[in-house]
């Protein structure tokens, strides 16, 4: 007897993990993704508890460790490349113990799910339309290569297709109608450039006036490229906003080049190489806040439902945990009731995780507007760095508090019980 058919839109972290867990419970799963399978874009991300429990039980932890960037820590520098404070891996460092590039993580995840006979990945494929009946979702799927469209029926559809989710728009309406985008007042760009000797082994971040940041992160000791983040904390950059709205990559690059044109340190090198980068991505950072995450037989997952932005540091964790919970609830009750239980379990956890530290002012405090503010921040970071090193030298590291964990009911015994079912 055939099991329920589920369409997942998006082969990112959330979509691939959900496909894995649904496959273990004998669902027939189709995952569509607009990008190419080999696309390796994205930023560095970390996996920590409680999300780490999920990937451990997927049996992929060793594969993920093989893809670690090897970044040894974080180094705040000034325009002359002088260190203002180094923080080794772990503790209060931005560098986590399991740090990977998003492209490497998603590749491991989708290949793990793709090993199941009841999972099919279709890259360069998108939803054109969908309509729901009492017991089915009828979907028009278009292959971007062949330009052909086919009609397919599914029991459930999951939109795991990011902040600007097309699935969400088809089912619930435009972002304007939903009023679901909450700007955090920042623009970002991610891309890679050719590696130079100074790019290894620490990530290096340099502040500039008007809340501009250049952050360079190593991808691997043997890698020939370095990952770059440009972060501009500002709520009104007309040229960049228009370029982002149009999805015009060249205009986006030109807007960032103009914003960063007067800066020193490694910035001229970064901007020159940015104009040639093929894996360039830019956007305005938005949180997604919805009154409801599902409508009948269609449900949203990950950034499509609750994008927290990188300022919270919770996006990857929420994607992994959310996919596990949704898979668990669907396996218990393959009906729209599962979506209600999924939201009931996660809603408060997600809302807490969406909180930007320091009352929402963290992006402004850690990205000063003035030269004086930058000097003060560097001075504080230098003192904190010295304190951490002194404690380490005195063998008193155990006195430092552990990194706080979000309170969530993801007990290892519960996960193991689900795997054993």
UniProtKB/TrEMBL annotation:
GO molecular function: FAD binding; oxidoreductase activity
Pfam families: FAD_binding_3
Signal sequence region: none
Tagged with keyword Acyltransferase: no
Domain FAD-binding stretches: 5-331
UniProt KW Oxidoreductase keyword: yes
Keywords of this entry: FAD, Flavoprotein, Oxidoreductase
Protein name, as recorded: FAD-binding domain-containing protein
Source organism phylogeny: Eukaryota, Fungi, Dikarya, Ascomycota, Pezizomycotina
